[in-house]
Amino acid sequence: MVDRNPWLNFFSHAVLVLGVAIVAFPLYLAFIASTHTADAIVQSPMPLLPGAHLWENYQAALFGSGKLGSNTNVMHMMWVSFWVAMIITVGKIAISLLSAFAIVYFRFPFKMFCFWAIFLTLMLPVEVRILPTYKVVAELGLLNSYAGLTLPLIASATATFLFRQFFLTVPDELVEAARIDGAGAMRFFKDILVPLSRTSIAALFVIQFIYGWNQYLWPLLMTTSEDMYPVVIGIKRMLAGGEAAVDWNIVMATAILAMLPPTLVVMLMQKWFVKGLVDTEK
C-alpha cells in the first residue's frame, strides 16, 4: 500500500530534484564554458550564463584542424568512434545470439564446459588481459585499424549469458511446432528466436553502444595514428599541451559533442531499453 502523505511526496520530489541538480550541474558548466572565449572561462568567478561564442566554438571543435593537439578534427574522431561503437555492438549481439543458441539447442561434447568457460571470462576484464592482447594484435599487424580496435572487444560473456537465460524460457512446444512445420535450425533461429529476443537485443544495443563509444584504455594503446583517434582519445590529446596551452572552451564543446550520440541512442531506444531489461529480469 502506498502512503499518500503530502510531506512524503514533497520529500521524495526534493531528493529527486537534488539528485538531478547534482548530476546535471557539471554538464551545465561544461555547456556554459563551451559558449565563452578561453580567456573568459578561466577568470574568477566563472560566468554562469551562456555567452555569445557558441557557434564559433562548436564550429572550431567540429571542423577546426591544428587547434586540438592534432591535425584531425572532432568530426572525424566522432566518425571513428561511431564505427567502432557500431562494430562492437553489432558484433557482440550477433556472436552472443549464436553462441547462446548453440549452447541451448544443440548437443555436443563438453557443452557445459564451453558454457562455463565463456562464463568465467566475466572475471577477466580487458585491463587484465590487455598486454597479451596487445602483443597478439601487434603481431597480426592490426595496430591503427578498425579490426584492431574492435576485434578484442567483440565477444561478450554477459550478453551470451543473458540470451541463454532467455532462450531457456522459450516453451518446448514452440520448438516442436517449428520442427513439425519443417523449420530447420537456422530458420527456427532467424524466424522465431531473433524476433522473440528483440527487446533484449534493443537493451543490449544501448548498453554495448555506450560501452564501445566510451572505450579509452584500449584505443589509447592501439592508436598512434591521428586518423584512428576516437573522440575520447581526442579529448585526452587536447589536454596534452599543459594547462596554459589548453583552449578550455573548445575542450568543453568537444565534450558536449561527444555526449550527444550516446544520449541520442538512449532517448530513441528508451522504451525498448526499459522493456528489454524488465523482460530479462523475468
Automatic annotation (TrEMBL):
**Could you state one GO cellular component term attached to this entry?**
plasma membrane
Which intervals hold domain ABC transmembrane type-1?
A: 78-269
Query: Can you say where in the cell this protein is located?
Result: Cell inner membrane; Cell membrane
Q: Which GO terms describe its biological process?
A: transmembrane transport
Query: What keyword terms does UniProt attach to this protein?
Result: Cell inner membrane, Cell membrane, Membrane, Transmembrane, Transmembrane helix, Transport
Task: Kindly report the protein's main subcellular placement as a broad class.
Answer: membrane
Q: Which CDD domains match?
A: TM_PBP2
What's its membrane topology? Multi-pass membrane protein
The question of whether Cell membrane is a record keyword is answered with yes
Q: Which domain of life is it from?
A: Bacteria
Give TM regions: 7-29, 80-106, 113-131, 143-163, 192-213, 248-269
| Keyword Ligase listed | no
What Pfam families does this protein's entry cite? Answer: BPD_transp_1
Hey, which family's this protein in? Answer: Belongs to the binding-protein-dependent transport system permease family.
Q: What does this chain do?
A: Part of the ABC transporter complex UgpBAEC involved in sn-glycerol-3-phosphate (G3P) import. Probably responsible for the translocation of the substrate across the membrane.
The subunit field of the Swiss-Prot or TrEMBL record says: The complex is composed of two ATP-binding proteins (UgpC), two transmembrane proteins (UgpA and UgpE) and a solute-binding protein (UgpB).
Mind telling me what this protein is named? sn-glycerol-3-phosphate transport system permease protein UgpE
Query: Lineage of the source organism?
Result: Bacteria, Pseudomonadati, Pseudomonadota, Betaproteobacteria, Burkholderiales
Q: Which gene encodes it?
A: ugpE
